[in-house]
Amino acid sequence: MATLKRHPFHTVSSEVDQDDLDAKIKKHRRKVFAIIASIILLVLIALIAIYIYFEHKTYTSYEVINSIERSDTSASQFETFQGNLLKYTNDGAVYTDLNGNRIWNQTYEMDHPSTDSCNEYLVIYELNGTQIYILNKVSLQSSIQTTMPIQRVSVAKQGTIAVLMESEGISYLQLYDKEGTQLAAGELHVQNSGYPLDIALSEDGQKLAVAMLDINEGSVKTTIAFYNFGAVGQNSIDKIVGSYSYPDMLISRIHYMKDDTMVAFGDSKVVIFRGTQKPAESTSIEITEEVKSIFYDDQYFGLVFDSDSKEQPHRLELYNIKGTKVREVGISIDYNQIELLDNQDICIYNDNQCEIINRKGIKKLLCTFDKSLYKVISAAAQRNYTFILEGETRRVKLK
Question: Less Cβ around it within 10 Å: N or C end of the chain?
Fold first, then answer.
């Protein structure tokens, strides 16, 4: 009997079809990927174009998102703290969110209440009085009663405070933690070191700068002394780790922008000091005109001068933390307040006018109000703001 021989099936055609199918799938995937990439690119371009458009647009009106009535007195003052609103008067302070919901209130009696804040801590103190309250966004942390009139208080990010006091020609410095426990104390004798003008405590609470004015036989000199309350200062006399004198210059304001950077504002020079432990002069900016105003946050500082222009009566110069001028722009209105908002817009306003300039120097808003304007607060959205007006909190969107 003949035996049938089995032959394997030939699959060449099937293999060719599969390769062709794989090639078509890959081609289709590349096409889909190219389409998706093109769509994403177009969306990004559109978003960038929209962003550039709104960044360069000047608004003259706004849409009111919501409005909340408030009950204020003529002595009410307002500050922003941790994204919420602090209203304080001679009789006490009320801390609310922007919808008017009360978070806490603190009663006191002060003739001249003043404030300072850093990160999560706020201090309310009585200028030329003896009361100090240390608070955070939740509640009161402690209160301090001093034995001498308070000239200045500076708070660090963990609630440590430095207090400058004066009595009978002698100035005193005291350092407290947030519980009100005294950490350090010392005297500043005017005849030896000059009259203290300002103090600045670093964010970490370790370094304290003191600006002192010395007038001797008609000549003026300002000296800035740096104290270190950490391990480095233990080996220095009176914990002083640096001292710098500036003849013929009045330095009325000093401020720590970062733990390692402090800026001193003088009438003829702005001086920037750097150093994590022993600050030293790093950069100086010569001033040849009279400074009308200064303002700052932890990244930028600004100087305002008068100008000869009727349309823009003031000129603003903005500097970064390194002392480099990043912007120069004219101001269109006379003002009584100028500050950097949380979104780093520059806000200039008076009782019924407001001008907002963005970081690029573009005039973002110029408008007039029908009520007295007390404060401006920026929101996360670049066109949204909160205006604290007389008896009203008005949340708006520019249009």
Answer: N
